[in-house]
Design brief:
mainly alpha, three-stranded antiparallel sheet, signal
């Protein structure tokens, strides 16, 4: 009696070919067509297997649209708060920069008068001017970072708004009699 040896791959292919639709072990849908496994191709809103002519429709529900709108509104609220914070930090940085400029001018005047020796009190005043300049610079940096964060959040909110509008459009195509169609 002669035995035929089969490789593990061949055995797996033989077992898988017995079922018309299965997964490949990674969760991807596979279609069996004439003994060949081919991945099911995915498109924007429909999954097609052209060889078997099966369709899986993914419709945009009213809840999907409302959730997308709420997400966009939440991001816009966060962006607004971030912009308010950035503006407040910018105003504060401007005030600190003006104050630092005044103390720097006073410190400069100390060294302009070279006829008298520099006193300890004058050195403390120069040190105070340097610290106030550092504080103003730090505040400007914080304002710039806050402004960049506000810009980032505004961009995310704009993208979320665009997606919610697309979902509303698709929902109205999927469900022409939807209550969302009558809302302005």
């Amino acid at each position: 009696m002669m035995r035929t040896k089969m490789s593990p791959k061949m055995l797996l292919l033989l077992l898988l070919s017995a079922f018309p639709q299965q997964t490949d072990g990674f969760g991807s849908n596979m279609a069996n067509h004439r003994g060949r496994l081919r991945p099911v191709q995915q498109h924007r809103s429909t999954v097609w297997d052209r060889t078997l002519s099966t369709t899986k429709m993914l419709l945009v529900s009213e809840e999907d649209v409302l959730e997308a709108v709420e997400q966009a509104e939440m991001l816009w609220a966060q962006a607004l708060e971030a912009r308010k914070t950035a503006n407040a930090l910018s105003d504060r940085a401007e005030e600190e920069a003006e104050a630092a400029a005044g103390t720097a001018k006073e410190a400069e005047n100390i060294f302009q008068n070279q006829t008298t020796p520099v006193s300890m009190e004058q050195l403390v005043q120069v040190d105070k001017a340097a610290k106030s300049n550092l504080d103003a610079t730090s505040m400007v940096n914080r304002a710039v970072k806050a402004s960049e964060e506000a810009d980032r959040l505004e961009q995310l909110a704009e993208e979320a708004l665009r997606k919610s509008e697309e979902q509303l459009e698709q929902h109205l195509k999927d469900f022409p009699d939807s209550p969302l169609a009558q809302e302005d």
